């Protein structure tokens, strides 16, 4: 299962990826908005949006990229490891 995490804390990128590997998921993490982000998102199975640490422009760009696909969108106001773990337990268990 491929996971794209948008938002979150820059110092937690490696920990986000390690947790995703425990659930047999490949992860891409984007903590800052840049113009190349949209083309590098690809077509993930699950997109996690940590809404407290991202701009509205970043949310809109990410959602526009996945419009019309079968991508699952999971939103969390907190960008903690526990929040990501709960999302992965809910969605990655079925993959």
Question: What is this entry, summarized?
Answer:
With 95 residues, this protein is of the alpha/beta class. 38% of the residues lie in helices and 22% in strands.
Structural account:
The protein has four helices and four strands, in the order βαβαβαβα. Strands 2-1-3-4 form a four-stranded parallel beta sheet, with helices on both faces. Helix 3 links the parallel strand 3 and strand 4. Helix 1 runs parallel beside helix 4. It starts with a strand and ends with a helix. The model has no long low-confidence stretch (mean pLDDT about 90).
List the helices and strands and how they pair.
Layout: E1 2-7, H1 13-22, E2 26-30, H2 37-40, E3 46-50, H3 56-66, E4 72-76, H4 81-91
Parallel strand pairs: 1-2, 1-3, 3-4
Helix pairs in contact: 1-4
Terminal Cα span:
6 Å
Structural class: alpha/beta
Helix content estimate: 25-40%
Number of helices: 4
Uncertain stretches of 5 or more adjacent residues: none
Largest sheet: 4 strands, parallel
Strand numbers in spatial order across the main sheet: 2-1-3-4
How much is the average pLDDT?
A: 88
Radius of gyration equals 12 Å
**Beta-strand content estimate:** 15-25%
Quantity of strands, as a count: 4
N-to-C SSE series? EHEHEHEH
């Amino acid at each position: 299962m491929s996971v794209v995490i948008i938002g979150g804390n820059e110092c937690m990128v490696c920990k986000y990826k390690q947790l995703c590997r425990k659930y047999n998921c490949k992860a891409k993490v984007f903590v800052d908005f840049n113009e190349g982000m949209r083309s590098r998102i690809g077509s993930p199975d699950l997109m996690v949006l940590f809404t407290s640490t991202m701009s509205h422009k970043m949310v809109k760009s990410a959602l526009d990229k996945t419009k019309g696909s079968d991508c699952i969108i999971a939103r969390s106001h907190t960008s903690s490891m526990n929040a990501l773990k709960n999302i992965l337990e809910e969605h990655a268990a079925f993959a």
